Amino acid sequence: MRHDAAMDLAALMSTMKAMSRLTLPKVFVSEIRKASSVTLLTCCGLRHFAGPAGSSLTSGRTAGRLVIVGDVHGCSAELEDLLEAADFHKRSDELIFVGDLIGKGPSPREVVRIAREFSAKAVQGNHEYNLLRWRRRGAPLPDPEKKIKESYAATVKDLEEDDWQWLEALPLMLHLDLPKSPLPVVVVHAGLVPGVPMDQQKPYDLVHLRSIDAEGHGSKLFDAGAGAWAKNWQGPTQVIFGHDARRGLQKEAFAIGLDTGAVYGDKLTALLLPKNWDKPLTSLDNSHFLSVKSHRAYASKSDSKA
């Protein structure tokens, strides 16, 4: 459906309102408001908005960015706010999640839908990892808390088969394509154990690690002897991770932690990393981080151990 520059934008927005049953992410509406002429491509629902032939909604930002989002935990409204605040453009930007898209929050299906519509990349977090095991094999959940199990049961009923296939395909580690970076960069949900080769890191640690104990082993506890794994990680691989809401935003020499407790009423945070980034992550400044306030607390901070 083609709309030229003379088309009344108000009429277009009225049409969008009438189609609100599609629960279109706010970021799309934001792009329409900024476009003088809009093409709606309606393949499998409203997916893309593009300007007239030869134009671009992303002029001035030709290289594009990796928009790497911390733990969402089913907070779809906050995710939409974040993408709008980031001025995200699907043509040039790439969306990446550090895991725990689901679990604890109110809208896991909507979060997965947004991720799929944006062709996002992601790694499994402990909540995806545990839930997939539970669904696939009937394996017992390692977390005994009733609220978490109730959240999983609701998610199992809520997601469709295509959503499950997307989640099943998520890796535990993602190597970022940053050709100009002087050091390799990976995304994992929880962390890496110092001194262990990359190809020998245990899946359990990749989705549960928080600290290093006095003997140098990985631990999911906050108060293990040697402290946060990220402080102990000496590279050379640089790591972007989540999982550790209690410690919040972490900026270490070779590791960046992005879990800022969105589901607990705090913030949802993203790292905005240019695709042509050519420096160590230690060169990142505050302009590369973006946070939006949570609408409310959907879970208790006492649950942050999970």
TrEMBL record:
Q: Which UniProt keywords apply?
A: Hydrolase
Q: Which GO terms describe its biological process?
A: polyphosphate catabolic process
Calcineurin-like phosphoesterase domain ranges (all copies):
65-245
Q: Please tell me one Gene Ontology term that the record gives under cellular component.
A: cytoplasm
Q: Which GO terms describe its molecular function?
A: endopolyphosphatase activity; phosphatase activity
In terms of superkingdom, the source organism counts as Eukaryota
Q: Which Gene3D superfamilies match?
A: 3.60.21.10
One Pfam entry name: Metallophos
* Protein name from the UniProt record: Bis(5'-nucleosyl)-tetraphosphatase, symmetrical (Ap4A hydrolase) (Diadenosine 5',5'''-P1,P4-tetraphosphate pyrophosphohydrolase) (Diadenosine tetraphosphatase)
Query: Lineage of the native species?
Result: Eukaryota, Sar, Alveolata, Dinophyceae, Suessiales
